[in-house]
Each structure stands twice: as structure tokens, then as C-alpha cells.
Amino acid sequence: MIKESLDVTSIVIFSLLSIILLLFSAMASGSEVAFFSLTRSDIDELEERDDTTSRRVLNLLDNPDRLLATILVTNNMVNICLVIVVTQLVDQIFIFSGVWEFIFNTIIITFLLLLFGEIMPKVLSQANPVKMTSILSLPLIILRWLVYPLAFILIRTSSRVSRLATKNAEISIEELADAVDLTETGSEEEQKMLSGIVAFGQTEVVEIMHSRVDITGIEYDADYDEVRKVIVETGYSRIPVYGDDLDDVKGVLYVKDLLLHIGKDRDFEWQTLLRKPYFVHEHMMIDDLLKEFQKKKIHIAIVVDEYGATQGLISLEDILEEVVGEITDESDEDEDKLYEKIGEHTYIFDAKIHIGEFVRAIGYDEDAFSDVEGHAETLAGLMMELKRDLPRRGDELQSHGVKFFIATMDGRRIDKIKVEVDG
Fold it and tell me: What does the pLDDT read at residue 303?
């Protein structure tokens, strides 16, 4: 019911205050969406303009925490004042009884505040964020200065709460891997690199090392001519030197250490230039090994098993390739790839490829063959586990929807394996 006698002056004042406060509420709500909806291209556009308004916008974006605090403080203070003023305005005009006062002051006023002070300005700002930030930048610069004390307290408080909340927060490798799998942005190379980073801390040395049969070494008793011949033929910069066999590694020869002695005769005692070998266990994690490489300033390690027998060799390059992919230099130009895709679901694999790399190549999960691989580390070892007998050229095996054909042999050693994956 409308009052019989109205205070026109009070009604006008409260009405004007309500409109002004509603505009401030709309401005605060719209600016939050506008500023934090700007894309990289929008920011580049503002930087290219280089006018006063664009510089104001960029200045606000330089400190997003302070900007957000300014917007939130302003929005909440304005909304509280708006509710009080509108309530006073309604009391100046109407007389309510019972539940109607609650309905009008709470439900209707809240609805109008949400519609005109929140929803509409946010929709408009979302549609054209660059234009809205240009319009709202000057008022926000002024408000940032006016509400600085409250905004400062809010920033400090939220920062401390955030640190306490995240102090004990943990994310599992599985959750991180799932997040990478769900990421659709970036190139295929970027996706592989992200996956490599996620898997980095879970990869053991044995999974990426060069196996014992692929190690090129030099006999400790070899003369200098033989040493130079091995260096020229292999192109390696660091070569293990062994005594009776590879289980007796005496040291590592760095080719650069021979540069001052390149013209010496075959009786030159090159063994005096050997560096102490660094041995690591086959189950050491590669992220730990990388730290050791950095700490000791070395680039190569000899991999041994629990009995001290040499199992393989690993270099700094092998570790880095797990993240960034294959690193190729001049000496790698003629090296054979570990596998080649010859059909939609058909591959030719080098038998020495590690099982982990093999399953990734065919798109299987890391543990796809865990129930049959036993102690095997390579694809050749997997063939031995599947057959449970000496392999022969032409042997055909099948497991987990994959057909294996032993294509070529090198003596008693499996060389190439043809693989067909069920489509």
C-alpha cells in the first residue's frame, strides 16, 4: 500500500543514489569479466594502439591481483549500500504488512540487483571486452587508488590463505598425466614433450639405456692406431674402455683429451688419459641420474645390475631425449631408426628396442605386456618370453592382439621383428 503523505525530497535523493549505486555495481561486475576475458591477441591489439586509454588498460593488467581486489571491494561495498538505499526508498513510498515486506525487500530487490547489476553488464562485457575495458579503465584507476587500503588487506590475507591451502596440496602423477591427455591445445610435438615431462620422474635407467650388445668399447691393451680407428669409425666422443670384457670397465676415453696427442705413434700410452667411469644401477630413476650428471659434470654412465655386471650405457643425451624427443646431429644421419611404420597397422621393429618404447609406438598402455614380459627389457626379450625357446627366423607369435614375425636374425640374435596390430 502506498503512503498517503510522501516525502518527495527523500524519494528523489534515494532514487538518484540507487541509480548511481546500480551503475557502479554494473561497472564493477562488467569490468571483472571484461578485463579477465582479454585474450593474448586482445592484449597485443592494445599494445599496438599505444594510446592513453590502452596504456591505462595495460597498467591495470600489470597487477591483476590488485585489479581483482579493487573490483571485488568496490562491488561488495556498492551492493551493500545499494540494498540499504533501495530499502529506505521503498519504505518512503510503501507500507507493507506481514510476509509482503520480506518478498519485496528480499526477493524482488535481489532479482533487480542481479539482473541490472550483475548479469546484463557481464553479458555485455563478455561480448566486447576490449571496448569495455577502454571505457572502464579510467574509473578503475581512480577506484584503485581510493580503495587501496582495503584491497591491500584483501590481497595479503588471500595470499596467506592460498599459501596455507597449497602447502600440503599434492597432485599425483596419474592426475597430471590425465590433465595432459585432456589438453587439446598445442602441436603434437608439444603434447609429446608434456607427456615426456610427466613420465620423466617414473622412468628407470634400464628403460632408455643402450643395451650391452650395442656398446662400442675399446680394449685396454689396444695400441693407439686401433684407438684412432675406432674413433673414426664410430664418431663417438666418449668411449668405454674395458679389460677382459665389458664387466671390467677400466674408464672412459674422452676423444677431446686426444686432440693434443693426435700425431703420436702407435706406442703412445693413451690409457693415461682415461677418466674414472661412473656406474649407476639399472633401476635408478633418470631424474635422479640427471641431477648426478649435473652435480658431477659428466655426460655418460655405465649401467650395472645387482651383481655388478654391465647391462648397458646411458648418456645425458638419452635422458634429454625423453623430454624433447630425438636429438639428431651429423653423426646420426645414417643411423637406422628403431622402427618403421610400413602400413596402417604394420611395423618393422629393431629387436633391441625397449618394451616401453615399443608399446608407445603401437599406441598401447605402458603395462600392456606386463603379464607376459617376465624379466625382459627389450622386444627381443619379449619374444623369448613368449616362445620359451630359442628363436628362429620365420617364427610367428601372438599376444594381446599383436602378431609378431621374426623377420631377420644375426646369428643367434634376433635382428628385425615385423609387428601387426589388430585394427
Answer: 93
Residue of 290, 345, 296, 346 lying closest to 319 (CA atoms)? 290
Place 188 in a pLDDT band, splitting at 50, 70 and 90: low
Give domain 339-421's CATH number out of 2.30.30.140, 3.30.465.10, 3.40.630.30, 3.40.50.720: 3.30.465.10
CATH 3.10.580.10 positions along the chain are: 205-328
pLDDT tens digits for range 274-303? 999 999 999 898 888 988 998 888 999 999
Find out whether 299 and 275 touch, Cβ atoms under 8 Å. Answer: no
Query: Please, what sign has the CA dihedral across residues 90, 96, 101, 107?
Result: negative
Residue ranges, comma separated, of all CATH 3.30.465.10 domains in the chain are 339-421
Q: Which of 3-12, 52-61, 186-195, 407-416 has the lowest mean pLDDT?
A: 186-195
Nine-digit cell string for 145: 587508488
pLDDT tens digits for 202-218?
788 888 888 888 888 99
CA distance 277 to 293: 12
Task: Report pLDDT for 177.
Answer: 57
Per residue in 299-323, pLDDT tens?
999 999 888 899 999 998 888 877 6
CATH of domain 205-328: 3.10.580.10
User: What span, in angstroms and rounded, lies between the C-alpha atoms of 238 and 216?
Assistant: 10
The angle at the Cα of 34, spanning 184 to 16, to the nearest 5 degrees, equals: 155
DSSP letter for each residue of 285-326:
BHHHHHHHHHHHT--EEEEE-TTS-EEEEEEHHHHHHHHH--
CB-CB contact of 277 with 251 (8 Å): yes
Q: Which residues pair with 304 in a beta bridge?
A: 281, 310
- Are 207 and 356 in contact by the 8 Å Cβ rule? The answer is yes
- Cβ–Cβ contacts within 10 Å for residue 308, how many? 9
The three-state secondary structure class of 399 is strand
Percent of the chain with pLDDT over 70: 83
How many Å apart are CA 384 and CA 404, to the nearest integer?
Answer: 12
Parallel, antiparallel or unpaired: strands 218-219 and 238-242: parallel
